[in-house]
């Protein structure tokens, strides 16, 4: 689960962590703060709220999850990880590649923990995006789908399918035939997201 928890040193105020080429030394804290600010600004909280209310939290069963406190071991791995819904949001708005490229340079990511050193070098930036309207729209679509579909876990099955298709889309980036097939599949899977698509059209019109 994304669990946004902003620190007082909020890098989103600067809209990015500016990295001057060729490389810059950063602290793990800076990277975590930026990641959390990014998730907050993209509006992940709207989507997580719906997901969690239907029992789909990705933190379920984690030993670092504390009742009433949330995550007690904020780490680079969980911050970098995106579920299918959040991945879809960045995929459609054209920011997924930048997100992936940024986190690929952060060492020591592991399952629900990290071995990331306190300082390290990176050379790619991450620019915080305000996607709150889109997240809200997607959250409303998910809420409606979860309410109206009798199949248990309908939205979570959808989340996994979208996730798989986007991963493959990235994997086959140099294969136009497979890429197009996957793109069509993602369009089909996301066709029930009516509010989201309206918000996306508005977003694309001004970006
Ligand atoms: S699976 Fe996705 S939407 Fe659900 S809690 Fe985790 S990050 Fe949020
Ligand atoms: S460490 Fe556990 S509680 Fe914390 S974000 Fe990761 S999965 Fe969730």
Automatic annotation (TrEMBL):
Polar residues bias: where? 1-19
Write down what this protein is called: DNA mismatch repair protein
Q: Which organism is it from?
A: Cohnella abietis
Where are the stretches annotated Disordered?
1-20
């Amino acid at each position: 689960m994304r669990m946004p928890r902003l620190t007082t040193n909020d890098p989103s105020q600067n809209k990015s962590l500016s990295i001057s080429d060729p490389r810059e030394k950063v602290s793990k804290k800076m990277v975590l703060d930026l990641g959390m600010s990014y998730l907050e600004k993209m509006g992940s909280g709207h989507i997580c709220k719906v997901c969690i209310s239907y029992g789909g939290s990705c933190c379920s069963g984690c030993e670092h999850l504390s009742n009433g406190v949330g995550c007690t071991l904020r780490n680079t791995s969980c911050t970098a990880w995106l579920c299918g819904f959040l991945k879809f949001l960045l995929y459609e708005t054209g920011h997924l590649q930048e997100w992936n490229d940024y986190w690929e340079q952060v060492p020591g990511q592991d399952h629900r923990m990290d071995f990331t050193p306190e300082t390290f070098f990176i050379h790619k930036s991450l620019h915080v995006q305000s996607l709150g309207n889109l997240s809200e729209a997607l959250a409303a679509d998910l809420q409606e789908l979860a309410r109206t579909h009798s199949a248990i876990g309908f939205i979570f099955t959808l989340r996994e399918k979208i996730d798989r298709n986007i991963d493959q889309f990235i994997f086959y980036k140099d294969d136009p035939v497979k890429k197009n097939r996957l793109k069509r599949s993602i369009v089909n899977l996301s066709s029930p997201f009516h509010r989201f698509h309206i918000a996306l059209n508005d977003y694309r019109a001004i970006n």
